[in-house]
Amino acid sequence: MDETIRRKIQALLDAHRIMTIATLRPDGWPQATTVGYVNEGLVLYFLCGLESQKAANIARDDRVSLTIDHDTPDIMRITGLSMAARARPVLDPAEGGRILRLLPGKYPEQKTPLPIPMPTADQVRIFRIEPVVISVLDYSLGFGHTDLVTC
């Protein structure tokens, strides 16, 4: 992967904390859901309920698609990325605890304590998302300009 595009992807991942992730339901329909995430490099992590539809969908088929973007009043400043990836559960309790400790760092503006305690790794399902293909959108390089990167 070209270092310039890697830095651009990294900057987009680091600058955001919400993504829309699509999984495949048992009936074949995609299910898109908004979730928070943290990342280490190009690897993303998110959590969901133990019995959530997302967790069941991923247990059956680990292929996911996701988008990360933001709103802008200037069309030619639209940026974001979409990703085809594999989502796998984090099974190591130490790794799960480490990821949960990273989450508050994505919310530095949070001045008051959460109204509920942060969950522990055994109370949620944590997924590691490893990219397969990343499409980087940058309208400043032309209307609808994308760079496609295979990982």
TrEMBL record:
**InterPro entries from the xrefs?**
F420H2_bilvrd_red/Heme_oxyg, Pyridox_Oxase_N, Split_barrel_FMN-bd
Q: Which residues form the Pyridoxamine 5'-phosphate oxidase N-terminal domain?
A: 6-116
- Recite the UniProt keywords alphabetically: Oxidoreductase
- Signal peptide extent: none
Gene3D superfamilies, alphabetized: Electron Transport, Fmn-binding Protein, Chain A
**Coiled coil region boundaries:** none
The record's listing under Pfam families reads: PNPOx_N
Name the UniProt record assigns to this protein? Pyridoxamine 5'-phosphate oxidase family protein
Q: Which organism is it from?
A: Marilutibacter chinensis
* Lineage of origin: Bacteria, Pseudomonadati, Pseudomonadota, Gammaproteobacteria, Lysobacterales
